[in-house]
Specification:
395 residues; mainly alpha; three-stranded antiparallel sheet; two-stranded antiparallel ribbon; 12 helices; 5 strands; elongated
Length: 395
């Protein structure tokens, strides 16, 4: 324990040491505030790195969200004949999670139409764009046949790429598309969504640099005196497709381009749909066919593609033939035609179930029963049976 005498002695000793070394006190006074100055020097770099990492994380989250929306659009189109309206509806449902909390919490029957209206508006303003990569008009020229409804009846003026019994239809490649019938039954779409750059300073600065790199009109050239961003040989020659998205909606944005594909679960009846070409080169890579046409640049957002591809009057639409292209002799003229599955006893034919039921009723001498007129009378009995079933399960 320190006594007052010992504390006084310690104080005298400290004063003596200060007197013996007069420079120590002046150095301590001179070094005051050095940490603050060092922080001012280092802080901009640290903040720039931190903001850059945060913006990169937000872009990664945005890309996964756009990929999910594109996949939902491909799934919706695959079961509805590659209908552009179905694709837009599927993409809108995929984007519901990015909308406000009230819309995301609402049932799909309510949030679906509202999200679709938002997406259509974004397509019109340039925030989003999409196009159909497959099937193409070349695929229809190679493989299309007259369309039929669910009961096997012909649909006038509509053609489709057959989707049933593909393993029995041969594996030859079409001369126009270079793809087989199985490959033509793949729906592939490309979606571009301009993701907002929400991080201060870094987002707007990155967009400004990319506008100059992509040679966008009106982009201000950065100074070359203090940094190398102004070197002309660093500019990107094929990035002009991104220019329309950088300032879409009056906000700094980063265009995210993704592709999604789904195997067709219904005959394709639409080709070349979308809001116009979204890129100068296909996003599917260098192996994609070079002659793949993009959508109609004049098509309005959400517009339906033609229900049938016009066939020249001098030539009939390609129909199924009994001979497979693989069985043609070498040097045979004409495009490959999918092997016909008509009149095959081992393969169900369109409308066969309906025909068999009608024939069975005719053979038995019984009139075909139609309960449509008796539906109202049967409804109370069905409800009573359902209530009784629930009561039994409760016991």
């Amino acid at each position: 324990m320190f006594t007052p005498r010992l504390q006084a002695r310690a104080l005298r000793d400290r004063r003596a040491r200060r007197a013996a070394s007069p420079g120590a006190g002046s150095f301590a006074v001179a070094s005051r505030g050095a940490a603050a100055i060092e922080w001012l020097v280092v802080a901009p770099a640290l903040l720039a790195v931190g903001f850059g990492v945060l913006q990169a994380a937000l872009l990664m989250h945005g890309r996964s969200s756009v990929e999910y929306a594109a996949f939902q659009g491909a799934r919706a189109g695959a079961v509805r004949h590659a209908d552009p309206e179905a694709i837009i509806e599927g993409m809108a449902i995929g984007f519901i999670g990015l909308r406000d909390a009230a819309l995301a919490a609402a049932p799909v029957s309510v949030s679906g139409p509202a999200a679709q209206a938002i997406l259509v508006e974004e397509l019109a303003s340039g925030v989003a764009a999409w196009r159909q990569l497959r099937p193409t008009p070349a695929d229809f020229a190679d493989w299309a046949v007259p369309a039929r409804d669910e009961e096997g009846r012909p649909l006038a003026g509509i053609i489709e790429i057959p989707n049933d019994n593909l393993r029995f239809r041969g594996s030859a490649s079409g001369p126009g598309s270079g793809r087989s019938l199985v490959e033509a039954n793949l729906l592939e779409i490309e979606l571009v969504y301009a993701w907002p750059m929400r991080v201060p300073l870094i987002g707007s600065l990155a967009v400004r640099w990319m506008e100059w790199f992509d040679r966008c009109d009106g982009a201000r050239e950065p100074s070359t005196a203090s940094h190398p961003w102004g070197r002309a040989d660093w500019r990107i020659g094929d990035g002009a497709w991104r220019c329309a998205h950088y300032r879409a909606g009056g906000v700094s944005r980063w265009p995210l381009r993704v592709t999604a594909s789904a195997r067709m679960h219904s005959p394709a009846r639409h080709a070349g749909a979308g809001t116009g070409p979204v890129s100068s080169a296909s996003a599917s890579g260098p192996d994609a066919p070079a002659a793949e046409p993009a959508g109609d640049p004049g098509m309005s957002p959400g517009a339906d593609a033609p229900s049938a591809i016009p066939t020249p009057p001098d030539s009939a639409p390609p129909v199924a033939d009994a001979s497979s292209a693989a069985d043609r002799p070498a040097g045979a003229d004409g495009p490959p035609i999918a092997e016909s599955v008509d009149d095959r006893a081992d393969i169900p034919q369109p409308g066969e179930c309906f025909a068999d039921s009608g024939q069975a009723a005719a053979d038995s001498g019984q009139a075909e029963m139609d309960v449509g007129d008796e539906e109202a009378a049967l409804a109370p009995a069905v409800e009573a049976l359902a209530a009784e079933t629930v009561a039994v399960q409760a016991r």
